[in-house]
Write a structure and sequence with these properties.
Elements (H helix, E strand, L loop, with lengths): L9 E3 L6 E5 L4 H13 L1 E7 L5 H12 L4 E4 L2 E7 L11 E2 L4 H11 L5 E5 L10 H10 L2 E5 L3 E7 L7 E3 L5 H13 L2 E6 L7 H8 L4 E4 L2 E6 L7 E3 L4 H13 L4 E8 L6 H8 L3 E10 L2 E9 L6 E3 L11 H8 L6 E3 L12 H11 L4 E4 L2 E4 L9 E2 L5 H13 L4 E3 L12 H9 L1
Parallel strand pairs: 2-15, 3-14, 6-7, 10-11, 18-19, 22-23
Antiparallel strand pairs: 1-23, 3-5, 4-5, 7-9, 8-9, 11-13, 12-13, 15-17, 16-17, 19-21, 20-21
Helix pairs in contact: 1-2, 1-3, 1-6, 2-3, 3-5, 4-5, 7-9, 7-11, 9-11
Bound molecules: shikimate-3-phosphate.
The site of shikimate-3-phosphate has 9 residues, from helix 5.
Length: 433
């Protein structure tokens, strides 16, 4: 059976416009962190608007196997924190599913436990690099064993950890988080320096829950051991899910959307910045702070975008938005290009190759570099069969492309959207009909 004829193939037809108000499910990155920190805290926590993403359920499943009691009712998760000492040795493998965040961030906690654990994932996660977390955790005193090529399963024999000063070779918020979570257990100051600013939800949440955090330029310092207090926490709407609707509304003439209660942490809003710089009519209103995180409503109207090069320093701040930005690039006046995004090759799929291949399937002109893409502007897209490689962000980016293509577009393995945004197609239907 070819990948186009499977049960989860989805047909997308061109639409006239997008209109209405949308509220997005809780941010995936922040949900993972609130769950891990609530588990590490003392006392009860309640997490409201917890992400519906399957990845975030993977985090809860792993926590359960480690003796943390998580109760989920709709999008509220209640948890009794086990503190630093209450973790139980798992009797089975910890299955992170498709979630790199679960596997990498949880490793920081497991590195400090007086027991062994083994983290596994699905076929896609089993191809993703883990040396980046093994290296600092080994330096802190844990034993970490990887498979040939630095791949999962990840076997961890925890130890009493020492603090380190760590210069991260790659700009990765997951690695930063793993080191900081290990630092929660270590006696003394753990310092992590990042080569470029990455999302800072972990630092913000650690501080909010009672840890002592310092920041100097690109270095974050955590005083350990850190005792955290359970809290009532509210997760902002996911800007990386909103990104697909922002791109769609910008491209489809006559569109006007209001996206409510979206997380607007400045380390996540580079896409908004770039499209605004290019002439996009995007307005942010009703700003407020929620547990140290900025939230607000985003109003977006269809616009003619100039296009151009995305500056390298912006790339870490829009890494998850690059597939849909590449699609948007085909509708700009002068096209779009970016470099410095080699990390896209080791996401849930090789996203540079997947975007280039699928844009070509739609008839667009695109050039692929080892670390980026160049997409020609003013392209007419023609509906085609899209190979999503089972990657949620490729499926959603090309669903957006299908809205402006001539004729129907068929996405393979479209059920992958459940990884980050299970209601994606329903939400799209709601604003296009
Ligand atoms: C994430 C960080 C990014 C991002 C991923 C979520 C996080 O990955 O691509 O979707 O929640 O910290 P890296 O840390 O590997 O860059």
């Amino acid at each position: 059976m070819s990948f186009f004829s499977q049960a989860s193939a989805k047909k997308i037809e061109p639409v006239k416009r997008l209109q209405g108000r949308v509220r997005f499910p809780g941010d995936k990155s922040i949900s993972h962190r609130y769950a891990l920190l609530a588990a590490l805290a003392e006392g009860p926590s309640e997490i409201h608007f917890y992400s519906a993403a399957e990845d975030c359920q993977s985090t809860l499943n792993c926590l359960e196997r480690l003796g943390v009691n998580c109760r989920r009712q709709g999008n509220t998760v209640s948890m009794e924190g086990v503190g630093l000492e209450g973790w139980r040795a798992p009797t089975r493998d910890l299955d992170a599913g498709n979630s790199g965040s679960t596997l990498r961030m949880l490793s920081g906690i497991l590195a400090a436990q007086p027991f062994r654990s083994r983290l596994v994932g699905d076929a896609s996660l089993s191809r993703r690099p883990m040396k980046r977390i093994a290296e600092p955790l080994i330096r802190m005193g844990a034993k970490v064993h990887l498979q040939p090529g630095g791949l999962p399963p990840v076997e961890i024999e925890g130890a009493k950890l020492s603090p380190i000063q760590y210069e991260m070779p790659v700009a990765s918020a997951q690695v930063k988080t793993a080191v900081l979570l290990a630092g929660v257990f270590a006696e003394g100051a753990t310092e992590v320096s990042e080569p470029a600013q990455t999302r800072d939800h972990t630092e913000i949440a650690l501080e909010w829950m009672g840890a002592t955090i310092g920041r100097h330029g690109r270095t974050i310092r955590l005083e350990g051991p850190a005792r955290l207090r359970g809290q009532k926490l509210y997760v902002p709407g996911d800007i990386s899910s909103a990104a697909f609707f922002i791109a769609a509304a910008l491209m489809v003439p006559g569109s006007e959307l209001v996206l409510e209660n979206v997380g607007l942490n400045p380390t996540r809003t580079a896409m908004l910045q770039w499209v605004t710089d290019m002439g996009g009519r995007v307005k942010v209103v009703n700003l407020e702070m929620l547990q140290g995180e900025l939230i607000g409503d985003v109003r977006v109207e269809s616009s003619t975008l100039q296009g151009g090069e995305i500056p390298r320093e912006m790339v870490p701040g829009l890494i998850d938005e690059l597939p849909v930005l590449a699609v948007l690039g085909t509708q700009t006046e002068s096209g779009l290009s970016f470099h410095g995004a080699e990390e896209l090759r080791v996401k849930e799929s090789d996203r540079l190759a997947a975007v280039a291949e699928n844009l070509r399937r739609l008839g667009a002109e695109v050039e692929e570099f080892p670390d980026g893409l160049r997409v020609a502007g003013r392209q007419t897209l023609r509906g085609a069969s899209i190979n999503t490689y089972g990657d949620h962000r490729i499926a959603m980016a090309f669903a957006v492309a299908g809205l402006i293509a001539e004729g129907p577009t068929v996405l393979s393995e479209s059920d992958s959207v459940k990884i980050s945004f299970p209601q994606f197609f329903e939400t799209l239907h709601q604003v296009t009909s």
